[in-house]
Structure to design on (232 residues):
């Protein structure tokens, strides 16, 4: 019986010590950001060709595709950066209100082109040239930065400094001495999603000037949670 009582007392004392130690901490959050200037881009384009003949529809789409390839070749964009393998063909039907039936109109041939850019100065001439060549739709370019990892590490450092400043202000307000960091955890906001600049460009037969794109700066954010000890 006495042995059980002795063990119980030890456990009680240990729990009190643990509670006391845990209470002597300050937990704060910190946020930080760092610029990540885009220096890469990916451009998605679509070619939609219609014709009563399947072969003719495919030929129209292929002709525009070859014109786009000629544009990228003239700009010295390597063929490894250009993907023209996306292709589909489907029958084209139109609803006839008088008969209440779907009327066969021909075929639709579609080609997808993706161009990766390592020089953002090439974006405008490719967009303008592609629309002139007959591309039906150009989506806003997705912008990337090759220095995202470095930017994220800088954001982490800034977040840690922010957390320490928050802890120091709390300690001063509570009239206690701030100790060292006991634990640090990150709640990463991740790298920024590729950002697109400008509205989607729909290339109609009578389209005018193509909207220009400006690769504005992006930023990477990081969040940290830090537990500091409070010195006696």
């Amino acid at each position: 019986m006495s042995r059980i009582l002795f063990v119980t007392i030890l456990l009680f004392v240990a729990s009190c010590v643990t509670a006391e130690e845990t209470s002597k901490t300050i937990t704060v959050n910190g946020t930080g950001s760092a610029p990540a200037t885009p220096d890469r881009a990916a451009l998605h384009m679509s070619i939609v060709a219609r014709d009563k003949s399947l072969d003719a529809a495919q030929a129209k789409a292929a002709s525009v595709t070859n014109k786009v390839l000629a544009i990228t070749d003239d700009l010295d964009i390597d063929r490894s950066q250009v993907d023209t393998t996306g292709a589909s063909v489907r029958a084209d039907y139109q609803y006839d209100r008088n008969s209440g039936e779907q009327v066969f109109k021909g075929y639709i041939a579609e080609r997808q082109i993706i161009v990766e850019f390592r020089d953002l100065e090439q974006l405008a001439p490719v967009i303008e040239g592609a629309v002139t060549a007959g591309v039906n739709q150009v989506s806003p370019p997705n912008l990337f930065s090759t220095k995202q990892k470095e930017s994220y590490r800088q954001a982490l450092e800034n977040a840690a400094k922010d957390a320490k400043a928050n802890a120091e202000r709390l300690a001063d307000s509570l009239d206690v001495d701030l100790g060292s960091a006991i634990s640090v955890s990150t709640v990463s906001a991740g790298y920024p999603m590729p950002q697109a600049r400008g509205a989607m460009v729909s290339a109609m037969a009578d389209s005018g000037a193509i909207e220009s794109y400006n690769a504005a700066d992006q930023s990477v954010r990081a969040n940290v949670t830090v537990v500091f000890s409070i010195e006696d």
